[in-house]
Structures are given as C-alpha cells and as structure tokens.
Amino acid sequence: MSNPDAPVIVSCALTGVLANRAQCPAIPYTPVEIAEEARRAWEAGAHVVHIHAREDDGSPSWRPEVFAAIRDEVAARCPVILNFSTGSLDDDTTLQERMLTEVRPHVAALNMGTMNYAKYSDRRKDFVFDLIFPNPFSKIKRLLAAMNAAGVKPELECFDTGHTASIAPLVDMGLLKGPLEISFIMGVLGGLPTSVEALQLQAMQVPAGSTWQVIGIGRIQWRMVAAALVLGGNVRVGLEDNFYLPDGTMASSNGALVERAVRLVGDTGRRLATADEARAVLGVAR
Predict the structure, then answer these.
(1) 1 within domain boundaries
(2) Fewer CB in a 10 Å sphere around the end CB: N or C, the chain?
(3) Are 143 and 110 in contact (CB under 8 A)?
(4) 80 DSSP assignment
(5) Residue 152's CATH number
(6) In terms of residue numbers, what domain contains 79?
(7) Tens of pLDDT along the chain (286 residues)?
(8) How many structural domains comprise the chain?
C-alpha cells in the first residue's frame, strides 16, 4: 500500500560489509568514524542510519561491544534512529541475538529469504563475487524472537517477490505484528531487477497501514529513489549501497548522498517527515 501524500522517511546506510576505503575513501570503520558519518547524515536530513559494525581495520564485526560503542558514540552526537544489521552468511545467530539483547537498537534489519547474491562485470565477462546468502525460516524465526524479546523493531529486507510473500506466515504465527516496515532491495544479481514495474509489484504486496522503502544498489539508485518517491514510498541512500552522486561524482560523505535524496523529495512534490513523525510512523518511541 502506498500513499504519495505521506511525509517521506529517509534512511542512510553508512558502512556496509563489502565496501572498503580502496573503493571509496569516505567509508567509516571505527565507532567514532561511523558516529561522525551518522551525524552528517542526520544533519543532512536522514531519520534513520543503517549500520554494519566493523573492526578498526575495516573487517566485519559481530561483537556486541563494538555495536554498543557505535550506539553510544552516535547517541552522543545526534538523536538519529539506529538500525543495526543482523545479516550474515552463517546459520549460527548467537552473536546477533546477543547484540539485540544487550545493545537494543531501535530497529534491526532482517533478511527475508535465501538467494544467489552476486555481481557481474560486463567488462570482465565474469562474476565479481558469487555467494549464496542463506536465510531459511528457522534463522528468521530465531532472529525475530530475539528482536521481539528485546523490543527491537524489525525492518524486513526483501530482495525478491518471494521474500515479500514470506512475510504473511510470520504474521499469521504472531512473530510479526503491524504496522510493518518493509525494504525492497533492487539491483543485486539474484534478486529484483531495477525497474519501475518490479517496484510496483512489490509495493502492491505491502499490507495496509505498513510502510516501505526502496534500496537501490549502484548508480541506478537515483532512478529507483525517484520511482519510490513518485509511488509513495520512502527511500534509503548511503555509501553501503552506492558511492556516487547523480552526476557521477564520488560522494565525499554519507551526508552528501542524503542531501541529494532530500532534494529529490522536494523535486517530486513530497514532504520530508519531521523527526517526531518518523518515530511515530516507525513505532520507535525510545
């Protein structure tokens, strides 16, 4: 369900797990660096920051103490809504469950299905990477149980239409309760293509009263942001998803990407949500 008259919530994915400073010098690694990027995103107009924890050398981290340090550093700088990742290639979710229980972010991302996760290079005529991203229902249920126990709002990340359809049985089981927050990731090979038609199909599956956002991967992100705004959705930008501004210039910070997204909100005749409106829509009180 879409409402083009609803105020827009802008999220920013600060870090990612694959990108590094050789690709983009602005990628933050340490809790202080991540918090500074969160502040820049907040000051530019973002309501939510999505974060993958890193060790100081840039490698992925699942240590709850790293997430706690990020939480504290961000909170000292701005009141942005924190969305922490729970995605991993392992079936063991012990560290993710500990993070949810001990750190209690406002929101946590939840991947809604297994998929091929790849990137293809036309120039190389080969795959840049080629992974299986395993997210069976047993794993989803464990993470949801931990989120519910900790009072953490799940953000449902759907890379394909089957992932979106998988929401219904979890609602029927009582593990998910509306209003839901749903994300449509577009541009990962193995998932949805980057087309307006594919986004429309996903938006048609959103339960009444719930909200959705688009996450475009790569430079095509800006077209998907524009499409989502026209269709009545929310948007996510950030260095996890795309390094470049619409003119092809590499962004100097996450804040630069948010500034451009906020401008698009106005250009499409939409209104940016206030901080209080975003918290109310997402059901984030604390």
Answers:
(1) no
(2) C
(3) yes
(4) P
(5) 3.20.20.70
(6) 10-282
(7) 578 889 999 999 999 998 999 999 999 999 999 999 999 999 999 999 999 999 999 999 999 999 999 999 999 999 999 999 999 999 999 999 999 999 999 999 999 999 999 988 899 999 988 999 999 999 999 999 999 999 999 999 999 999 999 999 999 999 999 899 999 999 999 999 999 999 999 999 999 899 999 999 999 999 999 999 999 999 999 999 999 999 999 999 999 999 999 999 999 999 999 999 999 999 987 6
(8) 1
Q: Is residue 3 assigned to a domain?
A: no
Query: Residue 175: CB partners within 8 Å, gap ≥ 6?
Result: 141, 144, 145, 148
Do the Cβ atoms of 251 and 23 come closer than 8 Å?
A: no
φ and ψ of 70, to 5 deg = -65, -45
- Is the Cβ–Cβ distance between 47 and 278 less than 8 Å? yes
**Domain annotation covers residue 119:** yes
Model pTM score:
0.96
Task: Quote the CA–CA distance of 100 and 265 in Å, as a whole number.
Answer: 32
4 in a domain, yes or no? no
